[in-house]
Amino acid sequence: MPGHWRPAVLVGARAESPTARTLVLKAEEGWPGHRPGQHVDVRLTAEDGYTAQRSYSLAAPAVGDTVEITVQRVPGGEVSPYLVDEMAEGDRLEVRGPLGGWFVWDPASTDPVALFGGGAGVVPLMCMVRARRAARSRALFRLVYSVRAPDGLLYRAELRERAPGDAGLDVFLAYTRTAPEGTPRAPARVGVADVNTHGLPAEFGPMCFVCGPTGFVEAVADALVALGHDPGRIRTERFGASGGPR
């Protein structure tokens, strides 16, 4: 059941950026599967019994009892510095989930999809992209990914060198502070022009998923409405200071 805490062991990890890491966790009591866009609670327990828990979006479809999360280190945080810098293969924690049923994409759907991610808000959107590839879906996908600078880009190789199964997926990287040399767009926050140019037209009737910090989510959602998108087809998820879904 989603509310049940399950022990899990770290079976793999990879750095995504200087401050972010993907953890591959194997649920030792089985995993019920999850939908793209859902998240899990993670709980750590110290030797003295003190516990701390945080929520993290699932970064990829489940493979058996194995799930992935991508964690961004939060300065001064209780949980993320350990997960990013210290947790080693064989170490254990607990997971609870999957959680959330509204901010999800159905791989059986053929509707066009527009994804807008700000910073670590790209994580659940990446799960949707990967689920689309795994399902060999032909649904039209557009991803607008807002990131401060090139060194903060998550899933760098996967987004820049997409697989043959990614036909129909377009990715636009919007840098807000520092852009690579030769990038035609000057660093700036995502605005109406970016949403209009690199998203999907309202007349296509796309499902729109927007995830990131509150300011980013509000700006993109307002832009989508201003461009004529159906508010009922705009789904948002905001991230709190801990980096987890809110």
TrEMBL record:
Lineage: superkingdom: Bacteria
Cofactors that this protein relies on: FAD
Stretch forming the signal peptide: none
Pfam families: FAD_binding_6, NAD_binding_1
CDD domains: FNR_iron_sulfur_binding_3 (cd06217)
Ranges for domain FAD-binding FR-type: 3-105
Keyword annotations of the record: 2Fe-2S, Iron, Iron-sulfur, Metal-binding
Name by which UniProt lists this protein: Ferredoxin reductase
Organism encoding this protein: Nocardiopsis suaedae
